[in-house]
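Lab notes, practical 5.
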Amino acid sequence: MNRHVISGQHLASPRNLRLGALVLLLVAINQINDPLMDATMGQAFVYWVIRPLVLACGLWLADQWIARLWSTRWSRPDWLKPVVLVSAIGLLPFAVTEALLEQFLPFRAEFLDDGLWSYSPLLAFLGEYATAASIVVPLHLLLWLMIDKQSAVPAAEPTIEPPPVPEFLKLATTSRPEDVLALQADEHYVRIYSRDGAELVHYRFSDAIAEMSPELGLQVHRSWWVAASAVRSAQRGSRRWQLELETDVSVPVSDSFIANVRERGWLKKKRL
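Output from the prediction step:
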């Protein structure tokens, strides 16, 4: 799953929370030294509403675009979040807005000369941009470390319990189902074949094969269950098919189970 979800992103996602917190912090910083003490209501609205809105939209659009580009074209480790690049691109519309508002609203940027715009509009724009970047980039990096980085810590994976041991194997020396090569009904007993030999346990055959996973093997005769890993070859006798196992045991295949055995592909195995 791609970590950079572009569409349908939840409003409370770490990225949206980070960008919202960044805009609120910048508004709070401006409030400390209000440059619009004598401004009209309209001018104050433009300053306190339009400017934060332009900043928020610019940063959000830049974050969306960079996230898409970062995930599809650029190969970088996950920890290298392009916060600086998002800030640099997202501040462009805000810097343009700041430079334009200086011509119409009764305030000037704190670090700029009053006559800079008339001397060089380009220098005035670059000054606005550099001033905003000197504030936004450090705050953006700090918020990313506090919000995105913390939320990216993977949760501990749930513990996967091993499959239960079949009850009939608890009576035998062979305890792992994958070590069973075949099961054979022997009156009221089940003969368990493994690579270590064979042993009898007092158990119902139908219950024993029901406790074995279907992925491990299948019943091929009313008295036989065979593991898939144990089948070495198959050959057709005078009356029925026989499966040759690793332990040189021959297992008959009855007609009622032949379709299941053929579906597994066991009948295609030839003796080497």
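Observations recorded by the TA: The mean pLDDT is 77. The first strand starts at residue 180 and ends at 186.
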